[in-house]
Write a structure and sequence with these properties.
single chain, alpha/beta, FAD/NAD(P)-binding domain, 3 domains, 15 helices, 21% strand, binds flavin-adenine dinucleotide, binds 1,4-dihydronicotinamide adenine dinucleotide
């Protein structure tokens, strides 16, 4: 008994101690302290966007070097890899967002966060015009800000290829509202199918879910829909569940062209087992209110009745990006996005004051979160170096204006050397950490770099790796706790 009580006491003490430390740090995190105010002697750095690129930059940068202003229509960062899980209710929306002010309030110098959309950039006057596009508007909703350096990180928007009916009738999977919209539509299809007196054909139509685009987004959405069906809907809608059909439509000969052949085959066979139909070499030509029009591999056109269409057919540039590129018609000719140099500066801008990162650029890398966040972290180092160079240049100017004595000449030489050193910037180098995707049925696939080669793996163990990789990639402890908690909740109580 004595020993038992000693052990219980010890364990209790350790648990309470751990909880105490956790509580202390959570409280500290919750109420960040005073920050330095903006300094008129510092240059202004304007960051457009609050996504992967911009948030990685803000996380890594030293804000004491600049007066930083962040402008984005969303006042939060969205962890996109877990967005399809929100669409089926596995995760709660709040678990995968991090308020931008959370990041900026933990910085040494204040950062202004403005919820607005940049509408135009004037690279000559060095100004950004922006507009409050939210629901509630004040007396002022459009204004302009000056910048010394601009970081353009506005991402991309959904590509519809102007296919009729896409905007009007399909759900997207890009923003948080898209995932919530899809969830509502999906559940509404089920409830409408359960409405008394519905004909068998109409039930079959309402319960046919079509996902367009066999890229990673389309595959993950299909996998998540299947899990929702198998793990929850079979219990709550037993009379309807067997009628639910999921079809994935892809124009190319296979899904997931960026993954290795072995993993493509694995995904296709997993989908077959899960009764998810894959239609490859099939193009969506139109989306109607109650059907999709498909061009089949033999070029015949068929109209397929369905209740829900999720459109995941890739990205296109935002208008603000196209307008900025149009200001440099000689240098910016790539239709995929902004061309940048080795230091992520927009090519063609005479004073090199605009940097562009992430999905709005056209580089040799895929438009992924991994690339955008590495670019953001790299840019934090570059702009720190620029701040140093600018400070040295100002000192040099002051020295050159003072009467030339021997010490001054020596100091001028030394400052010039330091400037030359500060101007030597390493080019951006992308380090690929691998590609991961969830394919449903508690299985994931991963192409991982391995000793100069590639390790292709898929299955339940990869799924556990997928979960732990994303849990550790989430930017804050708060998000990690919330996501882990949602996963436990779903295992215990369902969606
Ligand atoms: P974003 O993260 O899209 O950020 C753009 C920011 O700009 C947003 O904050 C937006 O609100 C803001 N903005 C928009 N318009 C304006 C404007 N006019 N003015 C100012 N700000 C503006 N990649 C991976 O590597 N792994 C994954 O598992 C993965 N999963 C994904 C899952 C889904 C469902 C989706 C949609 C994408 C996924 N991606 C993944 C891709 C990844 O999300 C993008 O490559 C990444 O978000 C690009 O980062 P970004 O900073 O360029 O753009
Ligand atoms: P995507 O561009 O990768 O795939 C879109 C697919 O839709 C293409 O395969 C295209 O052939 C198909 N398509 C286009 N129009 C069509 C039509 N009319 N009919 C039928 N099919 C049509 O887009 P996605 O999946 O949204 O990904 C965008 C970027 O985000 C990619 O770079 C991707 O790597 C990245 N991403 C990465 C993830 C991961 O690593 N797990 C998850 C999601 C996105």
């Amino acid at each position: 008994w004595h020993r038992f009580l000693q052990t219980v006491g010890g364990v209790t003490l350790v648990t309470l101690g751990t909880l105490g430390v956790f509580y202390y740090y959570a409280q500290k995190d919750k109420s960040p302290g005073e920050q330095l105010p903006h300094d008129p002697s510092k240059k202004t750095l304007v960051v457009l966007g609050s996504g992967w690129g911009a948030t990685s930059l803000l996380n890594s940068m030293d804000t004491t070097d600049y007066n930083v202003i962040v402008i984005s229509p969303k006042n939060y960062f969205l962890f996109t890899p877990l967005l399809p899980s929100v669409a089926v209710g596995t995760l709660s929306p709040r678990s995968i967002l991090q308020p931008t002010r959370y990041v900026t309030r933990h910085k040494k110098r204040q950062v202004a966060v403005i919820e607005a959309s940049a509408t135009s950039v004037d690279p000559i006057a060095k100004t950004v015009k922006f507009e409050d596009t939210s629901e509630i508007q004040g007396l002022v909703s459009t204004t302009t800000v000056n910048y010394d350096y601009l970081v353009f990180a506005v991402g991309a928007e959904v590509q519809t290829f102007n296919i009729p009916g896409v905007k009007e009738n399909a759900c997207f999977m890009k923003e948080l509202e898209d995932a919530e919209h899809m969830q509502r539509r999906f559940l509404d299809c089920l409830e409408t199918a359960a409405f008394p007196g519905q004909t068998p054909d109409e039930i079959s139509r309402l319960l046919h879910m079509v996902v367009v685009g066999g890229g990673p987004t389309g595959v993950e959405v299909s996998g998540e829909l299947h899990d929702f069906l198998e793990e929850d809907l079979r219990s709550w809608y037993p009379e309807l569940a067997s009628n639910v059909r999921i079809t994935l439509v892809e124009a190319l000969p296979s899904v997931l062209p960026m993954f290795s052949k072995q993993l493509i085959d694995y995904t296709e066979s997993t989908f077959k087992e899960a009764k998810i139909d894959i239609l490859t070499k099939t193009m969506v030509k139109e989306i109607k209110e109650k059907s999709v029009v498909l061009q089949m591999p033999d070029k015949s056109v068929v109209e397929v009745p369905c209740g829900l269409v999720v459109w995941a057919a890739g990205n296109k540039l935002r208008k603000v990006t196209q307008d900025l590129m149009a200001k440099f018609p000689q240098a910016q000719t790539n239709r995929r996005g902004i061309t940048v140099d080795d230091h992520l500066r927009m090519v063609g801008v005479p004073d090199k004051s605009i940097f562009a990162i992430g999905d709005c650029t056209a580089t040799s890398y895929a438009p992924t979160a991994q690339v955008a966040s590495q670019e953001g972290a790299y840019l934090a180092r570059i702009i720190a170096q620029l701040a140093k160079r600018d400070e040295l240049a100002a000192r040099l100017k002051a020295l050159q204006e003072t009467p030339a004595v021997e010490e001054t000449k020596q100091e001028i030489e030394s400052v010039q050397k330091q400037i030359t050193k500060a101007e030597k910037m390493r080019p951006f180098h992308y380090s690929h950490q691998g590609s991961l995707a969830y394919i449903g049925s508690d299985k994931a696939i991963a192409d991982l770099p391995f000793f100069n080669g590639n390790l292709a793996t898929g299955g339940v163990a990869t799924y556990l790796f997928w979960r732990s990789a994303y849990l550790s990639t989430l930017f804050s402890p708060r998000n990690r706790v919330l996501v882990a908690n949602d996963w436990i909740k779903v295992k215990l109580f369902g969606r």
